[in-house]
Design brief:
The chain contains 39 helices and 32 strands. By secondary structure, it is of the alpha/beta class. GO terms for molecular function: ATP binding; helicase activity; hydrolase activity; zinc ion binding.
Length: 1022
């Protein structure tokens, strides 16, 4: 779309003071709902950068790798009521494109003033809902009057990607006495939500709003008030012209301020009986919901004590459970069954699964619980089925297979159904309409710790009377983890997020979290619904455990890969301090950090060529001693699937029987691997990625070798708990193999900071009320890079091109002498190091590098503000770096001896390289490398996008193109040009088209992704 002119149909609306501030109704007047949704998603993903504005124009870059490797330069111009849009996406329709919509959202969010005017968090929370209501919600009147009626509100975009409709009841245009059926209003303690604010915004656009706003409510109404002391309270809004009888009745129950006078809920139920048949008094749904909750809480308190007494008096033998439970387990069963909706956060290895099964069985027998839905990681479905069959007589249905098969499985009517988290995303409708579980059990519930994810949002849409949330790590990194889990248990416990952040977080003036406070109050709040016991309860039943740390040096190849990756991550981290990273920058950051971690294990994980590593040598020694000499069984964990493959090859050479578990092993086969390790004496080695670190029982092994250290301490604890748990008979040894002088060592220090927060929140005996928070990963990378001393080992760099640039100067005798002198000079060593950093930063984009009096002039085209900022960062290390384009260089050269670059020394010339590699081919190789790193981290969605882009770039490079075709043009280009011209063979074309199609797949099996990686390697390497 090169240029468009569209006019929003703003009927009955006053002219806007800001021509680029659009609300939801105006956006729908100029483009479709689908485009608005895409634009909103782009805005939320921080794809809009470098926004500028003058009196009549607004422009910015919007990242969209589907259309172009370069960001879309969007320009908006407003003339009168018309919006002119210029965007390179070349949309053939007449509607505004998603890039323009993203820019409009970004502009509205960046408007100055709102943050300065907000003086407290409550006002900020309300302001946020007002702003979101303007642009994210569509509304329509259902019944009644504008100022006292019912409206339908529909969110444009939902976290679960499912359309959400709510009913809004407007009762006042001035007071926060309105009601909405959305879950946010129930818990936010604000008296408003974005749906209510959307309706109020719509009403304000009426031409006769001044008259409407003066209209009184047609009748008295009772509502739940939050803007009062000791909120919430039931409050009455009186109206003029009430009858004497009506006034006397209301005055008997409400004071002059309108607050209800009697004890709740009983007195209000009496009031409801008195006004039965009085249609002229309106009692809001919010009041009725509040009263039902109070009544349920009162009834539950009495019932809960009865349940505890019944279970605790059973002596450890519960009807229907084929096991005698320990006293602490009986306490856990009683807690779950009596509380009904609870978080069981026992330390790993204490038998949370058995406690949940026993409590579920008790509710099935005594509380009319008919259907129990267990949601767990895919790797644990078989284990849950075995445990249920082992301890009870209940029938179990594992949900698996295609959509039709799964629907039939849900209808079988078995008491227990077991499904993995990912399938709930697909099956939410059939779960809620067909299965309708009475009890929901979430195992390894840390999977929903991030409340912003689709999985977490979807899980919270499954209604059930009872809910057991099981996790040994209710808090892994941040207090928000605990908040998300308790939203499933009871959203009222911790209150709204805005208040939670105020009460328990210490922040600086920019809102950055510095630490946590009031933890004693937090422990008090969660105590009624969370039970945690640590392993000290069963310490006398667990074997001794020793830990051994082995430090190994990295090879030169590992060190180069490690340092190169951290340098790249550091530059992106510097960008992140100035502005949010775009999605592609986030992917590059993740890939760089993962490369550094992988390099700590083995160079072959990164370059796919190097053989062996010091860590593997250490593993060989350990396996010879532990397995071959001592006859022990050993568990080896690594985060990287390729590393586990290397260990498996070692085991074969040593003739040690082994099994290997990773994400690509089908769920149905994982139980067989575990059984072989447990029962077969010849199988001495269990090798696993962290897919096996959750929930599996591997206590036949007595030694655990960790080949790497996860960022998250909970993952490390999960690994250890696989062998150090109830049922273990032998002494347990935990071995950590660490790469010395690496950022893997820094990870160990960060892990301890996370443990401090965990212990002081979930431990009932904790005494600390305030703890600090570890520095975030980006800041840590920057700090480590700034503190790291530059190497003085000649001019070696991580770039293949940097040594060649210097070698060019060694051909002449005089230059050789100069370089020899440079190696003795710290200043020239810095120049040499900077050349390497320049090559790492801009790679194939560089055309020439010139030395100018101690500084460096880099010639390349194009370059942008980010490149200029990068040059500025490089200059801070003592060697000035400047950028110019080739045309400017030619102009300066025309000045001859008067030119400021007349004495410049050529240090690098891309034209001198033979053969010259296509920039598209270089980009393809870089994207393939990044995709492989993301696959190692199980980031499949991001990886498939990079793979498809890499394959398309490689195909375009074969054709000699300067730019790859856009995704939507790829098929036409392949069949009209690439195949007829012999650029691609049919198999390659099919592989490329398959990769492009998989970008939109809802779920991508790892085995299929491996096939795409293989296709990409073959296409790019030829």
């Amino acid at each position: 779309m090169t240029a468009e002119s569209l006019t929003p149909q703003t009927t009955n609306e006053q002219p806007q003071q800001d021509p680029f501030l659009y609300d939801s109704e105006q956006l729908h007047a100029i483009t479709s709902a689908a485009v608005i949704k895409q634009g909103l998603e782009y805005f939320k993903e921080n794809r809009v950068t470098d926004m500028l504005r003058d009196e009549s124009r607004l422009w910015a870059d919007v990242e969209d790798t589907e259309h172009n490797e370069e960001p879309c330069a969007v320009e908006l111009t407003r003339e009168g009521d018309s919006l002119h849009v210029s965007c390179p996406c070349r949309n053939s329709s007449d509607e505004v494109c998603k890039h323009a919509v993203a820019l409009l959202y970004h502009y509205a969010a960046e408007l100055p003033g709102s943050n300065d005017e907000v003086n407290n968090a409550l006002e900020s929370a309300i302001e946020e809902r007002i702003k979101r209501g303007r642009s994210e919600v569509k509304v329509e009147l259902l019944s009644g009057k504008l100022w006292f009626g019912s409206w339908r509100a529909a969110s444009i975009a939902s976290m679960t990607h499912r359309p959400q409709n709510y009913t809004v009841h407007i009762r006042s245009l001035h007071e926060r006495s309105n009601y909405c059926t959305c879950p946010d209003l129930v818990t936010n303690q604000l008296g408003t939500c974005k749906h209510i604010e959307a309706v109020l915004h719509r009403i304000k656009k009426e031409p006769n709003y001044d008259k409407i706003s003066q209209q009184p409510p047609p009748q008295p109404f009772v509502y739940l008030a939050w803007d009062v002391m000791d909120a919430p309270q039931i409050k009455l809004q009186r109206v003029a012209g009430q009858s004497t009888e009506q006034s006397e009745l209301l005055d008997h129950h409400f004071d002059r301020a309108g607050l209800f006078k009697g004890p709740l809920p009983d007195a209000f139920f009496h009031f409801s009986d008195n006004i039965y048949g009085h249609d002229d008094i309106h009692i809001g749904e919010d009041v009725q919901l509040h009263l039902r909750r109070l009544a349920a809480d009162a009834s539950h308190t009495v019932r809960a004590q009865q349940i505890r007494d019944q279970i605790n008096n059973s002596g450890g033998a519960l009807p229907g459970i084929r096991a005698r439970l320990y006293p602490y387990q009986m306490e856990g069963v009683a807690f779950l069954a009596a509380t009904g909706r609870a978080l069981l956060a026992d330390d790993m290895g204490l038998g949370k699964t058995l406690q949940a099964i026993a409590a579920a069985s008790w509710l099935e027998r005594n509380a009319d619980v008919g259907t129990i839905l267990v949601i767990c990681p895919a790797s644990l479905k078989q284990q849950w089925a075995r445990e249920i069959a082992k301890f009870t007589d209940h029938k179990v249905q594992i949900i698996q297979g295609g959509p039709e098969a799964r629907q039939a499985q849900y209808r079988k009517g078995h008491p227990f159904c077991i499904v993995n988290y990912e399938l709930v995303l697909r099956d939410l409708t059939v779960i809620n309409q067909t299965l309708r579980p009475d009890l929901l059990i979430l195992d390894e519930a840390q999977r929903i710790k991030n409340w912003r994810t689709k999985i977490a949002s979807t899980i919270k849409l499954v209604p059930s009377r009872y809910a057991f949330v099981l996790t040994g790590t209710p808090l892994e990194n941040r207090l928000e983890d605990l908040y998300s889990l308790l939203q499933v248990v009871d959203p009222q416990v911790l209150g709204p997020l805005w208040r939670y952040l105020i009460d328990f977080h210490v922040t600086d003036e920019r809102g950055k979290v510095l630490g946590y406070r009031n933890l004693s109050e937090l422990r008090r709040r969660i105590a009624p619904v969370m039970l945690r016991r640590d392993r000290s309860l069963v310490r006398d039943q667990l074997p001794d455990r020793t830990e051994l740390r082995l430090d190994v040096a990295m090879t030169e190849a590992q060190q180069e890969l490690h340092d190169s990756a951290l340098a790249t991550a550091g530059r992106l981290a510097s960008t992140a301090k100035r502005r949010p990273l775009t999605p592609s920058e986030q992917n590059r950051m993740m890939a760089s950090l993962q490369q550094a971690r992988m390099a700590c294990n083995a160079a072959g994980l990164v370059d796919k060529e190097s053989i062996g590593s010091p860590k593997l040598d250490e593993v060989t020694t350990l396996l010879e001693e532990l397995c071959l000499q001592d006859g022990l069984k050993v568990v080896v964990f690594s985060q990287w699937e390729r590393m586990t493959l290397m260990v498996e090859e070692l085991a074969k050479k040593l003739r040690i029987g082994s099994v290997r578990l990773h994400g690509g092993v089908p769920t149905a086969k994982r139980g067989d691997l575990m059984d072989r390790f447990l029962e077969d004496d010849a199988t001495q080695l269990f090798i696993s990625t962290d897919a096996g670190g959750v929930g599996l029982n591997l206590q036949s092994g007595s030694v655990l070798i960790n080949l790497d250290i996860p960022w998250n301490p909970a993952i490390l604890d999960q690994r250890i708990a696989r062998i150090h748990r109830l049922g273990q008979k032998k002494k347990v040894q935990i071995i950590l193999i660490i790469a010395s002088d690496s950022y893997e060592e820094r990870v160990l220090q960060l892990v301890q900071g996370k443990r401090d927060l965990f212990d002081n929140v979930v431990d009932p005996q904790a005494e600390q009320d305030v703890v600090g928070v570890s520095k975030r990963m980006l800041e840590t990378v920057i700090e480590e890079l700034n503190e790291k001393e530059p190497s003085t080992k000649g001019c070696d760099t991580t770039s293949d091109q940097a040594p060649e640039a210097v070698a060019t100067e060694t051909n002449e005798p005089t230059s050789t002498k100069t370089i020899d002198e440079q190696k003795k000079s710290e200043e020239n060593i810095a120049v040499c190091q900077t050349i390497g950093a320049i090559q790492e930063c801009w790679g194939h984009r560089i055309e020439r590098i010139l030395g100018t009096g101690g500084g460096l002039l880099v010639v390349m085209e194009p370059f942008d503000d980010e490149d200029v900022e990068c040059a500025s960062d490089l200059s801070r290390h003592g060697v000035g770096v400047a950028l110019i384009d080739p045309r400017t260089l030619i102009g300066l050269q025309r000045l001859g001896a008067a030119s400021p670059i007349a004495s410049a020394t050529p240090l690098y010339d891309a034209e001198g390289e033979q053969p010259k590699t296509s920039p598209l081919q270089v980009q393809a190789e870089e994207k393939l490398k990044a995709a492989e790193l993301l696959v190692e981290q199980c980031c499949f969605t991001s990886a498939i996008e990079l793979l498809a882009s890499a394959m398309l770039l490689a195909a375009a490079a074969r054709a000699g193109l300067k730019r790859a075709p856009r995704r939507e043009e790829a098929a036409v280009w392949i069949y009209s040009q690439a195949l007829p011209q012999g650029l691609l063979v049919p198999d390659q074309a099919n592989a490329l088209l398959r990769a492009l199609a998989l970008i939109d797949a809802a779920e991508l099996p790892e085995s299929l992704l491996e096939e795409v990686i293989k296709d990409a390697r073959e296409l790019i390497s030829h």
